[in-house]
Amino acid sequence: MNTYYYKKNLVAIKLAKVPKGSVPLTQENQPLQLVTLKHPKGTYLKAHMHKPKKRITHSLQECLVVRKGKIKIDLYGADKTLFKSIYLIEGELLILVNGGYGIHLIKDSELIEVKNGPFIEDKLLI
Fold it and tell me: Does the predicted TM-score (pTM) go above 0.90?
């Protein structure tokens, strides 16, 4: 797991390998919660449900999963400054916590984007 900071603010988390066990990748106070699950054959994770609760978030976070291909992501700070470019390949993911990003498709690619909702059209181009 790699973390990317701009001016002491966490902007993104990159995951290339899934660690053993049930491991939360984001902090409890983040709007997008990501947990990896890697257990041996025969393990049973107890069935459960979550109680309906009102959840209010004031920021949007996204998770990009590369299913196929190769991409380059430009990471921007909240002040719209490009500070880092990173590559992701098949099987890797990136959680965008703060700031902005741009995506270059280096190879034909398939991506999955997951973000907290509900959807509101609010893009600010950098």
Answer: no
Given the DSSP bridges, would you call strands 9-15 and 2-6 parallel, antiparallel or unpaired?
antiparallel
Domain covering 2-37+56-115 assigned CATH 2.115.10 in the classification: no
The answer to whether 103 touches 73, Cβ cutoff 8 Å, is yes
Question: Mean pLDDT score of the chain, rounded to an integer?
Answer: 93
Say if residues 42 and 53 touch (Cβ distance below 8 Å): no
91: left (phi over 0), alpha (psi -120 to 50) or beta: left
Contact 13, 94 (CB under 8 A): yes
Q: Does residue 99 come out as left (phi exceeding 0), alpha (psi in the -120 to 50 range) or beta?
A: left
Domain spans of the chain?
Answer: 2-37+56-115
pLDDT in tens, 49-85: 999 998 888 888 999 999 999 999 999 999 999 999 9
Quote the DSSP letter at residue 45: P
